[in-house]
Amino acid sequence: MGAGKLKSFTLAELIVVMIITAIVVGMAFSVLRIVQKQIHTIQNNFEKTSTLVLFEQKLWQDFNEPHTISYDKDRQVLTMMSEIDTITYSFQEKFSLRNRDTIKLKITPDKAFFRGKEIKSGPIDALSVVAETELPDYRIFVSKKNDLTLFMNQEDGL
Q1: What is the pTM of this model?
Q2: Is position 53 within any domain?
Q3: Which of 98, 104, 124, 158 could lock onto 112 through a cystine, CB 3.0 to 4.6 A?
């Protein structure tokens, strides 16, 4: 009896299958890398947004405590003084400070106002702040109502 032929794949067919498999796996890893980058970007933006929202809430809260608020544009320092405490916001190149708390974002005071007029230094009752390098078009505007004590102290020259 003669030996029958075994049904099997040729070497060329196996190589083609391996090449196709390698291409499919390579594409799958490329897509996975793209998805991971997107997730990382979304996570970063979420962290920045959360930090900015917390910063904005704290600034609003500080602004509306009974403080005397002054701003120095040259030093980029915002000072809030009351009989109980003093809060200082210092805006640096790559971060900002609230007393000793570090906010690891670039937040820049844009304009300071007192009684509706833009000023560079001195007492203020409103402040415009930008964080556009962190998130596009992110602006914060905080203001407070001036109480009679402020006007009476100004008239007395205090």
Answers
A1: 0.72
A2: yes
A3: 124
